[in-house]
Amino acid sequence: MQYRMLGNTGIEVSVIGFGTEHLTDPRKAVVSVVSEAIDAGVNYFDLLFSAPEYREHYGAAFRGKRDAVVIAGHLGNAYVDGQSITTHDPALCETAFHDLLARLRIDAVDVLMLQFVDDPDDYARVTGPGGILEMARRFKEQGKARAIGMSSHMTPVSLDAVQSGLIEVLMFSINPAFDRMPGYLPRLDALLKAARPERETEAIHGPDARKALYHACRSRGVGVVVMKAYGAGYLLKPAQSHPLTPVHCLQYALDQPGVATVVPGMKNVEELRAALHFLDASPEERDYSAVLANSQWQMRGVCMYCNHCLPCPAGIDVADTLRLIDAARQGITPAIRQAYRQLATDASTCTACGSCADRCPFQVDVVAKMREGAAAFSSCGGRVIGSRG
């Protein structure tokens, strides 16, 4: 297994995590699949629901293995009248949280998520006086949570949370379809067929805004947990003209700035093994460039940091350099400046030979980006260097 630090939390997580929403019953199946996942090195488990049986099944699966797992619980889900409901009611959330600890037979969760915060009004209630963020902080102070996170599907709210410094972890939907179209449409099939959005809508929901969010997470030390990496399975369907594989989707998500772990929903051992295949997949199996270069995905002109442009005659690591240049568009922080200075060969050494552009599957104007980066980093101050990410 490969591991990454979850932002600045000090928590090390497996790059392949475990989304539990599709594996809820029976207990024997939960225990069996979870045990195989833990044996393979998977340590991050996202526990979304509040149904008693669901929690008890996972409690049984984790029994005697607490030190081997990182558990993410949620404030925002309660069990009412025989069903799990989404709610930000503080009283219901507090009861549900204590129930989670009791049914799992643990003293604390590792990450406590403020669940499903998409709407600005919800964000204001959650983070305002008496909201569940105050509760999460209290639980952290009491040693019942190690880090505070938030799950969201919306770029503007997520960026506000990251820039505010209120959260340490962001759970966010990342896949090629969402990253190239506005992330607010209710169904992925509609999203893929949607007309190009209006400029104002694209500015807050579209590709540039999403990339800005990922870079903000990286620069501020907010760890990103990826949900919906397969687009609820839609991206894998053979009916697609250019379907992706689980390995493609996992590699794509893990290539984005700030990402620490991906938590695909896995309902059986076969789906677990399909995700784990990522660990021993060949470079050819991981290479999503040929698929995403197809017009369906509208990826032309967007750097995927895949380094298909190498080797550079000037010795530039193009992917690492462009990551920093893209991040600098949001402002050149001391950390970004230091990372740029540590590059063995930086953008200023680009000779504009064009060999990178000839090899790039996405038709990125690498030379222009190098010029932009060299000019920005040669100047002083943490100014924003462009309006597009």
The portion of residues forming beta strands comes to 5-15%
Low-confidence stretches: 182-200, 380-389
Across the major sheet, the strand order is 3-4-5-8-9-10-11-12
**Structural class by helix and strand composition:** alpha/beta
Order of helices and strands: EEEHEHEEEHEHHEHEHHHHEHEHHHHHHH
Q: Would you tell me the overall average pLDDT?
A: 86
Label the overall shape.
Answer: globular
Description of the molecule:
The structure is a single chain. The chain has 389 residues and is of the alpha/beta class. The chain has 2 domains: 3-295, NADP-dependent oxidoreductase domain (TIM Barrel, Alpha-Beta Barrel), CATH 3.20.20.100; 300-389, no CATH class. Helix content is 41%, strand content 14%. The chain has 18 helices and 12 strands. The strands form 3 sheets. The protein has an 8-stranded parallel beta sheet with strand order 3-4-5-8-9-10-11-12. α9 (199-205) packs parallel to α10 (207-220). The longest helix has 15 residues, at 90-104. The radius of gyration is 21 Å and the shape is globular. Mean pLDDT is 86; it is low at 182-200 and 380-389.
Structural key phrases:
389 residues; alpha/beta; TIM Barrel; 2 domains; eight-stranded parallel beta sheet; 41% helix
Write a brief structural summary.
The chain has helices at 27-39, 52-62, 90-104, 120-127, 132-141, 155-164, 176-180, 188-193, 199-205, 207-220, 246-254, 269-276, 283-286, 289-292, 318-328, 334-341, 355-359, 366-378, and strands at 3-5, 12-14, 18-19, 44-46, 70-75, 77-80, 83-86, 109-114, 145-152, 169-173, 223-227, 259-262.
